[in-house]
Amino acid sequence: MTITVLDTYPAMREILRAPRADRAALFKAMVEPAAGMYRYFPGDVDLVAMHAMSSGFPLDRDEDRCLEALQALHEADAWDRIQRALDDAVTAQLAATPGLAIPDITVLTVLGDPGDRHFMGPNLGMSANGSVSGYIYLNFWPYPENLARLQATAVHELNHNLRYSPGGVIWDPATVTVGEQIVSEGLADAFARQLYGDELGYARIGVPHLGDDAVFEKVVSGLEITGMQNFAAWVHGDETAARYGGTPVGLPTGAGYAVGNRLVDAYLAATGRTAAEALLVDRRDVIDTAMKVIRVPQG
């Protein structure tokens, strides 16, 4: 098992300094080692278009601002910190689940888009994906809060990667439920908090609603909804759903993360397990156990 954190700093610096006409080719060369993260997409994937859709740094504007932000990531030792965090997290996970098969993992770290209002605003300058076995995608704008959480963010995504790797939980886009993603976000945050504490381990977007009973009740009402096209509002909130053409359901940004943490914390407290020990727990066990002990005041 090898975790390879691609050293994308020099490549991004070259891209941002190059003539605009040359940037797409340079970008494709940079991300090619991680192109397998799109293996479930139909047909040939336009890597530049996917980068733009994912709020990655622009190839046609904001060069000076991006170069300054890129330097901030470099000076924060982002790539080495992410590498060490993932290596340490694998050690902690294997101590809890010795027989776990861990795939080789390639990690792509990119700078975000300062002109993307949704990314810089509601998403707080961070997006990531660890759901495709063998690949982790990390996208940061170097807000101080994000720089402080580089390691915790990386191990959050590692938790997803290991949960959905071969031999783990099966993610079938046709049958997967909102409840599975809610639980997975709670487990990933719990793992990050196990390693880095509550101050750094929570995904920032979920923190404002951790104790919101109305949000909890609303999200719990949708846990059995299926179809990934319906998930954005329930997990990320209405603003994200609207951005990607989904239907708002009356939830704030990060609602699913807040509720996932609450469900998982109740489960871990009831069972005495650690987040690492619960990596592959069935979402139904988490939900059923948690709902027996969580008391929501009735208005």
Describe the structure.
A hairpin with a 5-residue loop joins strand 3 and strand 4. The protein has 14 helices and four strands. Helix 1 packs antiparallel against helix 4, helix 5 (78-96) packs across helix 8 and helix 13 crosses helix 14. It is 52% helix and 7% strand. It folds into two domains: 1-168, no CATH class; 171-299, no CATH class. It has helices spanning 9-17, 20-31, 47-53, 63-75, 78-96, 117-120, 144-148, 150-163, 178-201, 213-220, 231-235, 238-243, 255-271, 283-293; strands at 3-5, 105-111, 126-129, 135-140. The mean pLDDT is 96. With 299 residues, it is α/β, with parallel strands linked by helices. Residues 103-287 form the DUF2268 domain. It comes from Amycolatopsis japonica. This is DUF2268 domain-containing protein.
Short description:
The protein has 299 residues and is of the alpha/beta class. The chain has 14 helices and 4 strands.
Amount of beta strand: 5-15%
Write down how many β-strands occur, each being a DSSP E stretch of 2 or more residues: 4
Q: What is the string of SSEs from the N terminus onward?
A: EHHHHHEHEEHHHHHHHH
The description of the largest β-sheet is: 4 strands, mixed
Q: What is the CA-atom radius of gyration, in angstroms?
A: 19 Å
Task: Name the quaternary structure.
Answer: single chain
Query: Count the helices. How many?
Result: 14
